[in-house]
Amino acid sequence: MNNLFAHRLSLLAGDAHRHLLTKGYRGIERETLRVTPTGHLALDAHPVSLGSALTHPQITTDYSESLLEFITPTEHDVADALAQLDKIHRFSNANIGDELLWSQSMPCVLPAETEIPIAWYGTSHIGMIKHVYRRGLAVRYGKAMQCIAGLHYNYSLSEDLWRVLKADTDSPLDDKDFQSESYIALIRNFHRYSWLLMYLFGASPALSTQFLRGRPHQLDKLSDDTLYLPYATSLRMSDLGYQNTAQSGIMPPYNDLDSYMRSLSRAVRQPYPDYEAIGTRRNGEWIQLNTNLLQIENEFYATIRPKRVINSGERPVEALCARGVQYIEVRCLDIDPFEPLGISLATSRFLDAFLLFCALADSPPTDEKASLEATGNFARTVKEGRRPGLMLQRDGQAISLQEWGLTLLDRIQATATLLDSQCDDRRHSDALLLQKEKLLDADKTPSAKVLARLAQHGNSFTAFGLQQSRDHAAYFAARPLSAQEEAEFVRMSQASLNEQTQMEQQQSGDFDAFVAAYNLRTPSRLCG
Question: Which HAMAP family does the record cross-reference, listed alphabetically (predicted)?
Fold first, then answer.
């Protein structure tokens, strides 16, 4: 254990500061496709009973009209966030007729590209900009890739805790900048070690043959309708999922928030020849917001992002520039098909210990060599993480995935113990022990369990996914909301519909001018 990590653990373990560990926030965003009873993509509009996808605080859509996104309020204890996520699922399950919530990250059976419905948010300028952005994703990357679902884990530490660490280091930075740069240091460590999360929680080793739409691949055939890799953990996070060669040079290794923001700002202003050839309009209709490398910052596919709650119409980089980093968003997690909510409490507890380790451990500046090493470790793990004897690279030296993983768990045990001291229990330590079992026996990983269950369904990804979706629907249906809880969701849905109507009725100005102004909204100091 290095001196900095040990010192910070000791500092926060003291009676004066230990309580600050409970003051951070957790939030979960879970994506899930609406599918028909036969496992095909639902093609109807977003259910009115679920409210407005534009303005509802907890139920929205991502890329497709069929791709629901459930957003929990932020909570100090992730168990409370999961309880909220459970209520959202129960309400939604009861208000989508005979449709099901798809249980997998990789999509169900999809129709032809032209038939996949892009999310619609109404006729307000904000609603239309969200819709046109998604049209741009369609012409740039195809619609099928955008139907992949994931789970985002939002994590923050108390601002008072960051102030304690700042005072301890006698940093010359102000509170805002110290907090921001500390989150960037967390992200550097996350990049070093996120291969471990893919081994432990990757749950997409197989996919529907039809998903690839004739794209070249090196997958093995498991059955007539299913492709896989025998040792894969997460094809979703491989080059078959959320990857894009045009974005490969966007984000060089960064060691401070300013360089991150500058890289994103350049990408949203840099013309890209392939997208210029497409243009922004077709037959008089907007088909993408601009012809730059990124339409907006969120188009950058990252496994983790520094975040700040934004105001309506504000760009993410504007918020970061003005107010600094508020939390981080972990974006590489697959949907756990064995959990109705897509994630378990034990997984969430481990994530808390892992991310606290990333925050407190020494995080030296990175460079291109270290960045390529981390990227390579991640890529090997998602495609062959369960291969016996798989070797990764640590500081230029070969090391087995199992050996490095067990070493990391030993270090993370210190933060799990620190978190457990808050409630005088072993909830985080027990969650860590579950992960150790996976490193000692690859058959206990979610990806291995998926392949085992596929074998029970004729090696059919669709059959397995459909059965899990049905089981989850029955689980939610057996636990209806109370009358009071149901009434509150109905109230939120109606209020969101009313808010959208009001936005559209009070609209003024020209959409073309709105887009032009939005495209220019980058802080001037980042435009150099």
Answer: Glu_cys_ligase
Hey, CA dihedral for 238, 244, 249, 252, is it positive or negative?
Answer: negative
User: What is the full DSSP assignment across 403-427?
Assistant: HHHHHHHHHHHHHHHHHHTTTTS-H
89: nearest Cα among 45, 58, 119 = 58
pLDDT band (50, 70, 90) for residue 289: very high
Cβ-based neighbour number of residue 79 at 10 Å: 13
Q: Tell whether the torsion through CA atoms of 82, 86, 92 and 93 is positive or negative.
A: positive
CATH class of segment(s) 23-389+441-526: alpha beta
pLDDT over threshold 90, residue 525: no
CA-to-CA dists, residue 270 to 131, 137, 466, 527, angstroms? 22, 17, 43, 11
Which residue in 16, 376, 322 sits closest to 176, CA to CA? 322
Tell me the domain boundaries of the chain: 23-389+441-526
State the pairing for strand pair 304-307/327-333.
antiparallel
* pLDDT of residue 252 exceeding 90: no
In angstroms, the CA 300 to CA 329 distance is 13
Which ranges in 26-124 belong to alpha helices (H)? 78-93
Q: Tell me the residue ranges of DSSP E strands in 37-101.
A: 59-61, 67-71, 100-101
User: How many Å apart are CA 287 and CA 140, to the nearest integer?
Assistant: 10
Q: In this model, does residue 244 exceed pLDDT 70?
A: no
- What is the pTM assigned to this prediction? 0.96
Q: Is the pLDDT of residue 528 over 60?
A: no
DSSP of 227-293: EE-TT-SBGGGSTTSS--GGGTTT----SSHHHHHHHHHHHTTSB-HHHHHH-SEETTEE--S-SBS
Q: Kindly state the tokens that stand for 55.
A: 């303005």
Placement of tokens 């000791």 in the chain:
10
DSSP summary character for residue 72: P
For the segment 425-441, the average pLDDT, to the nearest whole number, is 97
Count the alpha carbons within 13 Å of 520 in the hemisphere toward its beta carbon. Answer: 6
Q: Is the pLDDT of residue 404 over 60?
A: yes
Per-residue pLDDT tens digits for 143-194:
999 999 999 999 999 999 999 999 999 899 999 999 999 999 999 999 999 9
Give the CA-trace dihedral at 485, 25, 409, 438, to 10 degrees. Answer: 20
Cα separations (Å) of 460 from 90, 108, 109, 214? 28, 11, 12, 19
Report the C-alpha gap between 147 and 142 in whole angstroms. Answer: 10
Helix axes 175-193, 345-360, angle to 10 degrees: 120
Average pLDDT over residues 58-77: 98
